[in-house]
Amino acid sequence: MNNTFKDIKNDHPLGIAMSAAVPLWILSIREKGGLSNQDFIEAQETSTLLGEKGDILLFGGSKKKGEAANIFNKTAKAIAVLSFCPGGITIFGQTFEANKILNVFRKRRTKIILD
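Given the sequence above, the corresponding structure tokens read:
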């Protein structure tokens, strides 16, 4: 089976991992005051990185220790950056919208404080 990023659904380990990592990046971006020009530059660079080394993210096999983790984190952050665009981004069988995700964090935080 020849997987591509668009073929990965949310039951694939990569989609599941992104469903945990991307919201944390969204929260991190929000806590630092929002998006910066550097965030957009890094997201664009991640596009090139995935073109060159996306197979490492999908299938592993890198000889460099931590390379797959580094690619994963850069990808999760790039998705988080794009999630701030109107309508968010749909990838790995799920839609990431920063405003909706931040609202979930706000509701949970309020509930914890009130309890």
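Residues 5-114 form one domain. Try to locate this feature in the token string yourself.
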